[in-house]
Amino acid sequence: MVKVYGKLNCCRNTRLKRGFGIVEVLVAAAVLGFLYMAVLNLQSGNRDALLRIRGRDGATEVAQNIIDSLGALGIAGLSDDKMQECDENAGTYCSCEPGLRLPNKIVTSRTWKGQPGAIENDMNVEYTATVTVSPDADYVAKTSSMLLGSDSIEHVYAKRLDVKVCWHFKSSVQSIKVSGVIR
């Protein structure tokens, strides 16, 4: 009689298998597909946020440039007789508040070279600005003296500027309002 030590191949469990079955592979592919779609959706949202922030930064730059330019012009260039009453129906993109404003809307555009996404492109945004100026009566210093009698001297010492900048983003109109004071 021959004794065999060890396990025989014929006695092994035939149900043990190696590798992955087709069901496991299909489930893994479906899970990876859902994850890929979630990442794509996240990237799309990030791209839109980046473009919206760039548009708002450009609008802030436009508003600040207008305030700086009018500040260099001085108060004399912004007297009430050079302004016109604001008509709410006159706005192309945005309505303006009642008060005085510059006669014309200021239209300008900004372009950014960039790559928000896989394709390099230029982002061009057109901005429309409306400038509302406070009336002379809001910032007037009155002085009178006994020597002048009943006459008094009035001096306009400041003007408040409200710059409203509007631009299109996707299917909506975005706007910001920046205020400044010219002394």
- Can you count the beta strands? 8
By oligomeric state, this entry counts as single chain
Individual helix count: 1
What number is the mean pLDDT? 77
Element string (H = helix, E = strand)? HEEEEEEEE
Q: Based on CA inertia axes, which overall geometry fits?
A: rod-shaped
Query: Which regions contain 5 or more consecutive residues with pLDDT less than 50?
Result: 89-98
Major beta sheet summary: 6 strands, antiparallel
Share of helical residues: 25-40%
**Could you give the distance between the termini?**
117 Å
Class inferred from helices and paired strands: alpha+beta
What this model shows, in words?
By secondary structure, this protein is α+β, with helices and mostly antiparallel strands. The protein has one helix and eight strands. It has one helix at 22-73, and strands spanning 84-85, 100-101, 106-114, 121-133, 140-144, 152-156, 159-169, 172-182. The strands form two sheets. Strands 1, 2, 3, 4, 7 and 8 form a six-stranded antiparallel sheet that branches. Strands 5-6 form a two-stranded antiparallel ribbon. A hairpin with a 2-residue loop joins strand 7 and strand 8 (172-182). The longest helix has 52 residues, at 22-73. The N and C termini lie far apart (117 Å). 15% of the residues are buried. Residues 89-98 have low confidence and may be disordered.
